[in-house]
């Protein structure tokens, strides 16, 4: 999608999980983002319920992600104060969802270039993102090999 009006992820909250899966499968990986991406959880439960859940999660739990300027490292932003936690590495690899290239956000100690660290429960989390529009990425979260949630990340667009 290249339409600039699609940079707001609000339209994604009305989509079902199968529709979100089709969009993810049809999208290219894009470049590894940098900067702060505002997160929107996408439960795929219908527009009204999904919008309410997205607002609750953003207000109380998860605000998005911040990628370093090189794009290879990131952290999640949690709580209403956007505290950066859970370091991860970003790299390209095949998606667990469809086998095609995506951007992997990996918290495991074995991820490429990861420093040694204690094994935490989040180390089993693997996220995959693909670019679905200008400054907009669709993400899928896996716990082990099980898919658990879908989300969007919106990055600010540079001004012309």
Low-confidence stretches: 1-5
Quote the distance from N terminus to C terminus: 19 Å
The helix-strand sequence is HEHEEEEEEE
**What coarse outline follows from CA principal-axis ratios?**
globular
Give the helix level as a range of percent: 10-25%
Number of helices: 2
Q: Name the average pLDDT.
A: 85
Key attributes of the depicted protein:
160 residues; alpha+beta; eight-stranded antiparallel barrel; 2 helices; globular; disordered N terminus
Write the topology of this structure.
Layout: H1 17-26, E1 35-41, H2 47-60, E2 62-67, E3 73-78, E4 83-94, E5 101-106, E6 125-133, E7 136-143, E8 146-154
Explain how this protein is built.
The structure is a single chain. This protein is an alpha+beta fold. It contains 2 helices and 8 strands, in the order αβαβββββββ. It is globular.
Briefly say what this structure is:
The chain is α+β, with helices and mostly antiparallel strands and 160 residues long.
């Amino acid at each position: 999608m290249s339409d600039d009006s699609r940079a707001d992820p609000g339209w994604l909250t009305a989509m079902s999980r199968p529709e979100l899966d089709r969009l993810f499968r049809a999208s290219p990986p894009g470049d590894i983002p940098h900067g702060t991406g505002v997160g929107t959880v996408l439960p795929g439960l219908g527009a009204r319920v999904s919008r309410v859940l997205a607002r609750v999660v953003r207000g109380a739990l998860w605000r998005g992600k911040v990628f370093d300027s090189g794009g290879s490292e990131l952290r999640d932003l949690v709580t209403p104060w956007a505290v950066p936690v859970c370091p991860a590495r970003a790299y390209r690899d095949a998606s667990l969802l469809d086998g095609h290239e995506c951007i992997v956000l990996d918290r495991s100690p074995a991820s490429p270039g990861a420093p040694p660290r204690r094994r935490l429960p989040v180390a089993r989390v693997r996220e995959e993102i693909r670019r679905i529009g200008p400054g907009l990425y669709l993400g899928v979260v896996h716990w082990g090999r099980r898919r658990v949630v879908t989300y969007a990340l919106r990055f600010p667009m540079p001004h012309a």
